[in-house]
Design goal:
The protein has 94 residues and is mainly alpha-helical. The protein has six helices and no strands. Helix 1 packs antiparallel against helix 2 and helix 4 (58-68) packs antiparallel against helix 5 (71-80).
Length: 94
């Protein structure tokens, strides 16, 4: 992954190798280059959220759900992890 210059490829390799931190850093770099809300970064955030949930990394899943504005899944994540304060805050802001 150190020698890969294409951010999309680097992201996919990071997911395949289980390097969550590298995947997060890569998608954040992609977001800075192409702007927030671009199709490619949104797709990466969605894929990262799914992968993070599969491996039990709730912090990364939370960030990814926030980035994609997937409030349904974010609310469910807060509910199953017992983060009632965050769930209430999210409900108030909507």
């Amino acid at each position: 992954m150190l020698f890969v210059s294409d951010q999309q490829t680097k992201f996919q390799l990071a997911i395949e190798c289980g390097e969550v931190e590298v995947a997060v850093e890569t998608v954040m770099a992609m977001e800075q280059e192409s702007g927030k809300g671009s199709k490619s970064t949104s797709k990466c955030w969605e894929e990262l959220a799914k992968y993070a949930m599969e491996i039990g990394n709730m912090q990364v899943a939370e960030i990814a759900y926030q980035k994609t504005k997937n409030f349904e899944k974010l609310g469910f994540l807060y509910l199953i992890t017992g983060q009632i304060q965050k769930l209430k805050k999210m409900q108030r802001s909507r």
